[in-house]
Design goal:
With 298 residues, the protein is of the alpha/beta class. It contains nine helices and twelve strands. The longest helix has 20 residues.
Length: 298
């Protein structure tokens, strides 16, 4: 049976970064992993990031499992099995994800008997956890309750006491294994430890909140200077474009392909070593598409 690892986590928690690290661990151990990602917006950016690292990646854009993509996930998994004969499938759902819907996929004809749940891991944003819990707790609680392993991200950036974060997580899921270690310090033995942790699944059916989220994807007209991309990030964070919880894109900045990654106030701008069409996706509430378009097309 092919093991399917789920890497869940709310928007911008660090799922793709961790998936990349997990794929590398599997490769070092002699496994044959393939990555499948379900993106909420109309962009295949996360798949492109993984492909740039040399891995096979399949993207499912523009929807979520519970609304429109259950059938597509099943088809994608079976296509991956046939094309690559993997030992592991690493599946990254969108941040707007409910575990129960993925279990339904594993029960579908064709998938059942070939694939089974391997590891259920949830990435918890160490910077934005308190805000996310207050604003979007229904999704967050479902992901945390179902995970055998909870992995804190951005510990090098957060002002929160990790022990307080761990106490909050224990109140939601007292049985999970919690990895609270800076990611640059993770070694193969840490991955072996967290992958060895399994537990029974908790089933919960949270309120369906997808209508609370809006996604806007646009292509910039012109290349960026460093000053202009910094201004773009400031506009996203300040509220000038609306309540932007998540922004991500590949932009040309001073003639270099550049990855812009924003999770609320957490901004990363770094060189992108792969190739991808320039695009920017914003996810949030009451996004001012007219203002975003005016800035990108100026």
């Amino acid at each position: 049976m092919i093991q399917v690892d789920i890497i869940s986590g709310f928007l911008g928690a660090g799922k793709t970064t961790f998936a990349n690290m997990l794929l590398k661990h599997y490769m070092r151990s002699g496994a044959r992993p393939v990555f499948i990602v379900n993106e909420f917006g109309q962009t295949g950016l996360d798949a492109e990031i993984i492909k740039a690292e040399g891995f096979e990646a399949v993207e499912l854009e523009g929807g979520c499992i519970c609304c429109t993509l259950k059938g597509q996930v099943s088809v994608a998994m079976l296509s991956v099995v046939e094309a690559f004969s993997p030992t592991h499938i690493v599946f990254e759902p969108s941040g707007i994800f409910i575990f129960d819907d993925f279990f339904d996929v594993l029960k579908e004809e064709g998938v059942r008997g070939k694939c089974e749940l391997g590891n259920a891991l949830t990435i918890v944003d160490g910077v934005n956890f308190s805000y996310t819990k207050a604003m979007y707790g229904s999704f967050l609680y479902n992901q945390i309750k179902n995970a055998a392993v909870l992995i804190l991200s951005k510990l090098e950036k957060t002002q929160h006491d990790p022990d307080e974060l761990i106490a909050d997580l224990r109140n939601i899921n007292p049985d999970s294994f919690i990895m609270a270690k800076k990611w640059q310090e993770l070694r193969d033995e840490d991955f072996e430890l967290l992958l060895s942790e399994r537990k029974g699944m908790y089933f919960d059916h949270p309120e369906h909140l997808h209508s609370h989220f809006q996604t806007v994807t646009l292509k910039p007209r012109n290349p960026f200077s460093q000053e202009r991309v910094n201004k773009l990030a400031d506009l996203c964070v300040s509220g000038a474009f609306g309540d932007v919880f998540r922004a991500k894109g590949i932009l040309t900045v001073d003639s270099r392909a550049t990855l812009l990654n924003i999770a609320r106030g957490d901004v990363t701008i770094e060189t992108f070593k792969g190739y991808s069409e320039e695009t920017l996706t914003l996810i949030g509430n009451k996004i001012n598409k007219k203002a975003v378009k005016a800035f990108l097309l100026e």
